[in-house]
Amino acid sequence: MCFLLDIDPNSPVVELYKPVLSPISLSFTKWCMAFVYRFWDPVEVEEEASSAQKHRRNEVHPMVICDKDVSVRTGNILSRVSQTRDVIKMSKMHLELKAVRIIHTFSTLDKTISSLERQLAAARAAKADTEEGSPMVTKSGTKDLNESRRVFFVMGIITALRNRKRRNSIRETWMPQGEELKRLEKEKGIIIRFVIGHSSTPGGALDLAINAEEEQHKDFLHLVCSHFQSGPDLEIQNLRRIECFVWQNHIEGYHELSTKTQVYFSAVVAKWDADFYLKVDDDVHVNLGVVSSTLARHRHEPHVYIGCMKSGPVVAQKGIKYREPEYWKFGEGNKYFRHATGQIYAISKDLATYILVNRHILHRYANEDVSLGSWFIGLDVEHINDRSLCCGTTPPDCEWKAKSGNHCGASFDWSCSGICKSLVRMKEVHQRCGEGDQAIWDTSF
């Protein structure tokens, strides 16, 4: 075995034994070299040294393979990677396009389902009305001829039990009568009715007077159950009244206008399939041709609410005509939100159906026009502010426009919330502001 001795040559021990150690160390060194060369091939040593040196060179300068086949293979791989990226990109675009189509399809289906739900709700309400008594049936017990087909619009003239003279002033001016009224329904799809409930004492003088008026003119929409009106015995009538839904029996009263408006829209949308439903006061002048043309422009628009939009202070003082007991709900500004004035306004079928379906939970304020506006305030409704529906008669704004060939749709006086002294002035306004009796027949929509 060969090993090295780490001995300091200048140490005293070495100096002392130097004569003896020198021959021994020389012999020992030669023996070790012979042993190494015998068992360790010099060629292998050189190869290992050369390999280590080559490895160190490669670490400093990495070897680059310039083989042509390898370059071609590398190019093919890069080409396939690029093609794969293009395929992934196209697939992603295709999936995005497909997702957009799916979203559009779901949106269309959602709208269709919503429409069908509204129609189903209206059909259920109509079925319940037919089975349990309905405001959709007139005193004579016969339904209108047009209720089974689509009509253009239904106009309900809100009137009171004692307002026969007002009704006559309208019949004598802008509202067709008799056969002309039937022709209007058949040819133009326009239905006009006076909307009435019943008195607080059913079967009293006021109700009998309305029944006689209905027999004469056939132009009422009764918000009363049909079987509630029949039967001579008062006790039987009271029992039958319990069977009817509350909303089907409207008791007339000035402070019940919000309820009457809600009942009216619920009744007409269940009775007639129309594009629009209008509410008009019985002291307002209307040009049917202009109103028809106005509505025709919005016939294919959903969620439409048309009228003269207004706002104003909320009346909180007691004893005032338009006092709002819930004034505090309108906040610090104490102003109403924008809504159509109550003399005349129109809503599309989907909004009328919304009122029918949700009539039990819709809140009613003191004023009916405010109530209607509040029902739509949180919905996606298009408010259309049409100033041709609120022309004045004093000064004669409607007359000036008529002379220029631009007739108004509706005329009244803001100061009177209708035509001032309408019983004596309705004919005068009709002569000055009317479009002519032939206009509605010449108007196409």
From TrEMBL:
Cellular-component GO terms for this entry: Golgi membrane
Main subcellular location of this protein, as a coarse class: Golgi
What range does the record give for the signal peptide?
none
The record's EC number reads 2.4.1.-
Q: In which pathway does it act?
A: Protein modification; protein glycosylation
Q: Does the keyword Metal-binding belong to this entry?
A: no
Q: Where in the cell is it found?
A: Golgi apparatus membrane
Which cofactors, if any, are listed as required? Answer: Mn(2+)
Q: Which family does it belong to?
A: Belongs to the glycosyltransferase 31 family.
Q: What is this protein called?
A: Hexosyltransferase
